[in-house]
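Hi support team,

I've been running sequence recovery on a batch of backbones for a student project. Most finish fine, but this one hangs at about 90% for roughly twenty minutes before it completes. I'm not sure whether the input is malformed or the queue is just slow. I've pasted the structure tokens below so you can try to reproduce it. Let me know if you need the job ID as well.

Thanks,
M.K.
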């Protein structure tokens, strides 16, 4: 064979004749190998299949060319596919030989063919598992069609371990439908297998610990970081599904679900249930997601008042699942291992009456500063928030429609759903700010300790200036939830609580955490508290700032009454309100929905 030109790239050399690549010489392990030899291009073309399954222009298989060679087979394969299925045909090309790719130029020559998928990145030399994950992701995007492997046999001489593994996996996919394998029976065993979508949200650690204590088989799947990427996350998920075979996936506040609905669609195709436990307002979160109404999704809400609106939204499977506490972390001092050996708590923690909570002052100011709300909606926002706080209405828009109809067109005319939700959040936070201040004023005669953000200083500075005298209270910056709050609560005779206005009937975390430490809690009344504790015996509730002061005074003067309530509340928590209890309830709900 006469060669009239050469193009070299490291250990590969293209041999040309009449302006076309006739062969490629590759140097491996000290030996020179000709890709085609005397047989010429016919040798490369022999690997092509005679036909591609499909009908009416619809491609029924996903060809995978393993080894791009001189490019002749790729060129012929692409031409046949385009003739059969049009310019949007589908084809994957597997080749990790950078020196060959540099001289055959196929990536550049076929860059305009949008249906050609190159799963192997040029920046690194992937292993077979990496390549197969990428292929599986591509397969999922195109309906789970079976692979049709097309092997250039020369590549087995270059790297049999890698290319044979890819070929074998593609062969297996052609014989065994991945999606049928993924459609195994769910929730049939006494101990379900749970795939946890892990995040930095504080509750996930408690759920994992509860799984361990209950002996539940589980695995952790890290949510994608910016540098990790959604594609890699989905590939990892598919690997976990085939390896671990979970009964359902668990997440908190829909974390891990992409906004475009790709993962939700994937779970539907896998027939894999998702349990999403909302411990914040779901309506301020779910607006971000498309394709929400998935029959394989179950929504659990900590606030029973959300269930009706979630059903109205179209969710078929919703259930009430209140908050709880980690009874192995929030313990009385005499139950806590090593408590006596810990350093003395800071003096800033001292106070007979203590309140732990955010002032919402900075949050409201930041939201107003970052969002360009119309002047009409900002002019009276404090009065709107006060009115919203005083009603049973759960949604700001509904409150405006009923009480400020003149403002409704302005609200509905906001530029996006995000801005509308931002305004609703701002009004809810301002309502909470005003409400918390009024409640805390009810305990100011006791010079309370307030633990929280620095916004409390700003609030009381304004209050003191307006009233002409300085309120008596003590400030402590925010403390760590895990390592400090369990030690802080038992130091106060009365732990004071006032709930956010995003939950008008539900209770918050402190209702469980404080009594779990054996400490006494005085909290604002919420309807749903009666589903969880017996008021007057297991929990003490106030209905106004004035009543809060009266009750604080009474229980400060009657320590035996405080101890009796705290002990009864702790017994109830140990019997009904740990995270193990919540996980059992969630599993029972998933069995009812999907078992």
């Amino acid at each position: 064979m006469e060669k009239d030109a050469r193009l070299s790239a490291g250990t590969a050399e293209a041999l040309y004749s009449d302006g076309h690549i006739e062969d490629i010489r590759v140097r491996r392990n000290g030996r020179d190998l000709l890709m085609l030899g005397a047989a010429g291009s016919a040798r490369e073309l022999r690997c092509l299949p005679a036909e591609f399954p499909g009908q009416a222009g619809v491609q029924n298989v996903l060809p995978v060319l393993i080894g791009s060679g001189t490019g002749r087979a790729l060129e012929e394969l692409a031409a046949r596919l385009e003739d059969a299925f049009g310019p949007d045909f589908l084809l994957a090309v597997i080749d990790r030989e950078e020196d060959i790719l540099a001289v055959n130029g196929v990536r550049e020559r076929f860059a305009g063919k949008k249906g050609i998928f190159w799963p192997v990145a040029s920046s690194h030399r992937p292993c077979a598992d990496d390549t197969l994950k990428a292929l599986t992701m591509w397969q999922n995007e195109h309906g789970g069609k079976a692979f049709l492997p097309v092997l250039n046999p020369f590549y087995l001489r270059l790297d049999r371990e890698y290319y044979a593994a890819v070929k074998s996996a593609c062969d297996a996919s052609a014989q065994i439908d991945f999606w049928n394998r993924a459609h195994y029976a769910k929730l049939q065993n006494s101990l379900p297998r749970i795939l946890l979508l892990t995040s930095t949200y504080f509750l996930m650690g408690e759920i994992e610990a509860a799984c361990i204590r209950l002996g539940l088989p589980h695995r952790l799947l890290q949510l994608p970081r910016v540098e990790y990427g959604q594609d890699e996350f989905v590939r990892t998920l598919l690997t976990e599904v085939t390896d671990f075979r979970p009964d359902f996936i668990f997440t908190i506040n829909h974390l891990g679900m992409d906004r475009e609905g790709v993962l939700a669609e994937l779970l539907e195709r896998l027939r894999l249930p998702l349990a999403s436990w909302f411990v914040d307002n779901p309506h301020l979160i779910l607006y971000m997601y498309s394709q929400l109404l998935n029959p394989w999704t179950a929504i659990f809400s900590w606030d029973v008042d959300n269930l009706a609106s979630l059903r109205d939204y179209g969710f078929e499977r919703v259930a009430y699942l209140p908050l709880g506490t980690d009874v192995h972390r929030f313990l009385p001092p005499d139950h806590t291992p090593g408590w006596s050996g810990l350093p003395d708590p800071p003096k800033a923690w001292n106070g007979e009456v203590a309140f732990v909570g955010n002032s919402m002052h900075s949050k409201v100011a930041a939201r107003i500063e970052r969002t360009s709300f119309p002047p009409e909606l900002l002019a009276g926002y404090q009065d709107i928030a006060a009115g919203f706080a005083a009603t049973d209405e759960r949604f700001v828009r509904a409150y405006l429609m009923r009480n400020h109809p003149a403002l409704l067109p302005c609200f509905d005319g906001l530029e996006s759903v995000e801005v509308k939700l931002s305004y609703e959040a701002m009004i809810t936070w301002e309502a909470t700010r005003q409400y918390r201040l009024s409640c805390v004023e009810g305990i100011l005669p006791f010079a309370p300790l307030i633990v929280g953000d620095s916004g409390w200083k700003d609030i009381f500075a304004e209050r003191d200036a307006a009233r002409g005298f300085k309120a008596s209270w003590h400030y402590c910056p925010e403390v760590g939830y895990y390592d400090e709050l369990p030690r802080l609560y038992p130091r106060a005779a009365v732990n004071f609580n006032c709930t956010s206005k995003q939950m008008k009937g539900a209770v918050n975390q402190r209702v469980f955490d404080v009594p779990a430490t054996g400490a006494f809690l005085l909290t604002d009344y919420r309807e749903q508290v009666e589903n969880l504790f017996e008021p007057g015996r297991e929990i003490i509730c106030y209905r106004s700032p004035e009543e809060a002061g009266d009750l604080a005074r009474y229980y400060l003067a009657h320590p035996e009454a405080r101890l009796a309530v705290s002990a009864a509340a702790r017994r109830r928590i140990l019997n009904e309100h740990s995270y193990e209890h919540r996980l059992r309830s969630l599993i029972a709900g998933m069995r009812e929905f999907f078992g």
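--
Follow-up from support: It reproduced on our side and the slowdown came from queue contention, not your input. The domain at 52-176 is CATH 3.40.50 (Rossmann fold). No action needed from you.
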